[in-house]
Amino acid sequence: MSAIDIRGVSKRFGTTPVLHELDLTVAAGEFLVLVGPSGCGKSTLLRMIAGLEEVSAGEIRIGGRRVNELPPKARDIAMVFQSYALYPHMSVADNMAYSLRLRRTLPAEIARAVGAAAGKLGLEALLTRKPKALSGGQRQRVAMGRAIVRKPGAFLFDEPLSNLDARLREHMRAEIKKLHRELGATSIYVTHDQIEAMTLADRIVALNGGRVQQVGSPLDLYDRPANLFVAGFIGSPAMNMFQAHLERDGGTPMLTHAAFRIPLPRDLALPDGAALTVGIRPEHIVLGAGPIRGTVDLIEPTGLGTIVHLTLGGTAIKAFSLERHPLSIGGDVQLDLPLARLHLFDDAGVRVGD
Amino acid sequence: MRRRPLYWAVHYCLLSLYVLFALFPLYWLLKVALTPNELLYSEGIRLWPSRASLEHFRFVLTHSDFPLFFRNSLIVSTSTAVLATLVSSACGYGLSRFTFRGKSALVALMLITQMFPLVMLVAPMFRLLTPLGLTNSLTGLVIVYTAFNAPFATFLMQSFFDAIPRELEEAAMIDGATRFGAFRRIILPLTLPGIAATSGFVFTAAWSELLFALMLNSSARASTFPVGLLSFVSKFSVDFGQMMAAGVLALIPACLFFLLIQRYLVRGLTAGAVKG
Fold first, then answer.
1. Is B190 on the interface with A (CB under 8 A)?
2. Nearest CB to B175: which of A52, A99, A132?
3. Phi and psi for A181 in degrees, rounded to 5?
4. B75 partner at 20 to 30 Å CA-CA among A163, A227, B98, B240?
5. What's the CATH number for B65-269?
6. pLDDT in tens, chain B (276 residues)
7. Under 8 Å between Cβ of A6 and A156
């Protein structure tokens, strides 16, 4: 188990900067998830840690040792690829044994290690098969098996579940979490799926445009997003955003939008007329009662609850409710946006007000 | 997908017609080779002579230089196939896996070499090889053939390497292999069909090449069999029987070669067609 230290790491492809002076520490045994939209640099960062991409500037340390110049094989890491990258001409057992063979492990020890990993992942019956005779989920397991068989200092996952269907993905997600609890190995997991990030991570690193947007526990990011990007990226359905501004009403700052005026705490240090973006999560909108009137555009029952699409003073929003409200499309509904649930962002997109 | 029997009947009928069309010249070659000289002109275009004999084969094998030509061709074609495949595998891998300065210029240059009519190159090539003592030599031919076939073979190999996902090598390198180790143990076994197809292509190209073999080598000692075939054509007559017998013999190594690489070739030509 190794800690991983990333100090001022940058990456350029030619003259195109991809990552900008990243600092990040992964504690030994921690499960860290890198999340962000495609092109944010998360896979590049992972590949740099693995040694598959060169580091343009800065330093990467694994287990206290600088690895910038080390080839992948000397870094004591294992990686699970999105495409699984199983060796097509080798059986499942050989795929898993390959890394141990390259390390000249004794055959008896290899057999024991492969057997143990296969047992853990339920692959015993498939050991003699070739990858092409396996289903997607089984291939995914073999890729995991290949990674855990040699007990590396750290695991790197590059969107390992993206090629599975939804049901299998949910299942494997739980398996990965269980496996991590068992092995307790340092893991870095790259995904663009914020649900995977929320469910798996000890800590999430939200990346956008090659810069860290926020680092924190999943609920930290959900409850107190540091900026507009994180607020919009984490959560599904996504957070609702209103463009509003501040008007002072006899000393009380009023959050003003075409559909509402909400009094804010007096100590808010913002100038009169300041433009603000107000965010509220769909499940925090109180439907059925309140001072604000909205128009129902669409109703989507999910079984668990209902997603209601509304228009509020020209802004389209979504509300999620566990209750089944008697609403009709085109009709009006009264609602409330509780102050405690509002997120305020200034015109630079940075969280303000708390 | 299930189809009607009628569909398959028509399907196989058309295929048979094509096979008949493609194989008929080969059949005619064999027929003429087996027809004794006195029947060759008297019986006209009968499908099979009234009497078949092996006398042309006997003559070609015992009274002509053909065995020598044959040996020369075998040496030249096999060496060319091995050499060109090695060179093009290395180049193809480099083009497929790395980006480097001047890559597109290099590719363009290789493409341009394929656009020259060979006739234009005969004289300069001769001038280049003479001072090196490489005319009238099999080594000279091997070098020239390798040079001419390598660019196309490189493109061929590159496409085969391109079809193998990069992640396989990366996985091997993380598992503990060096880049060369990953190439040898993971990529090479998966490229066998491509290597077979490429070497087959180069072998046949070298086997049937006439222009350079004729222009660069004038002595019988260093002639290949396509040049040898010409010796059956004299000013006043063409000895069709012997020529065809030599032609039949010349087919044997090419057939054997393809028989050998066939199981890789079928996979190679359909690579990428089937998922997984």
1. yes
2. A99
3. -65, -40
4. B240
5. 1.10.3720.10
6. 566 888 999 999 999 999 999 999 999 999 988 888 878 777 777 778 888 888 888 888 888 888 888 899 999 999 999 999 999 999 999 999 988 899 999 999 988 888 888 888 888 989 999 999 888 889 999 999 999 999 999 998 998 899 888 899 999 999 999 999 999 999 988 888 889 889 988 998 999 888 888 888 888 788 888 888 887 877 777 788 888 888 888 888 888 888 887 777 666 555 444 333
7. no
B168, B171, B173: residue with CB nearest A71? B173
| Pairing verdict, β A65-66 and A343-345 | unpaired
Beta strands, E only, chain A: 4-13, 16-26, 31-35, 57-62, 65-66, 77-80, 154-158, 186-191, 203-208, 211-216, 240-249, 252-257, 260-263, 275-280, 286-301, 306-312, 315-321, 332-336, 343-345, 351-352
Give per-residue pLDDT as tens, A124-151. Answer: 999 999 998 999 889 999 999 999 998 8
* Contact status, residue B145 vs residue B76, Cβ threshold 8 Å: yes
Phi-psi category of B137—alpha, beta or left, where left has phi over 0 and alpha has psi -120 to 50?
Answer: beta
* Cβ neighbours of A342 (radius 10 Å): 20
Neighbours of A40 (CB within 10 A): 24
Task: Please report, rounded to a whole number, the percentage of residues in chain A having pLDDT higher than 90.
Answer: 79
From-to residues of CATH 3.40.50.300 in chain A: 4-233
Instruction: Give CATH 1.10.3720.10 domain extents, chain B.
Output: 65-269
Pick the CATH number of A4-233 from 3.40.630.40, 3.40.50.300, 3.20.110.20, 3.30.70.20: 3.40.50.300
Predicted pLDDT of residue B266: 66
Sequence-distant (≥ 6) Cβ neighbours of residue B69 within 8 angstroms: B220, B223, B224, B225, B227, B228
CA angle B175, B176, B182 (to 5 degrees): 85
Q: Return the residue of A nearest to B165 by Cα.
A: A85
A240-352 maps to CATH 2.40.50.140:
yes
Eight-state DSSP code of residue A239: P
Asked if residues B204 and B178 have their Cβ atoms less than 8 Å apart, the reply is no
Tell me, yes or no, if B168 comes closer than 8 A to chain A by beta carbon. Answer: yes
B220-242 confidence digits (pLDDT tens): 788 888 888 887 877 777 788 88
Question: In Å, how far is B174's CA from the nearest CA of chain A?
Answer: 5
Q: Are A157 and A188 in contact (CB under 8 A)?
A: yes
Q: How far is A325 from chain B (nearest CA, A)?
A: 49
Residues 6+ apart with CB under 8 A from A150: A78, A99, A100, A103, A113
d(CA B48, CA B149): 40
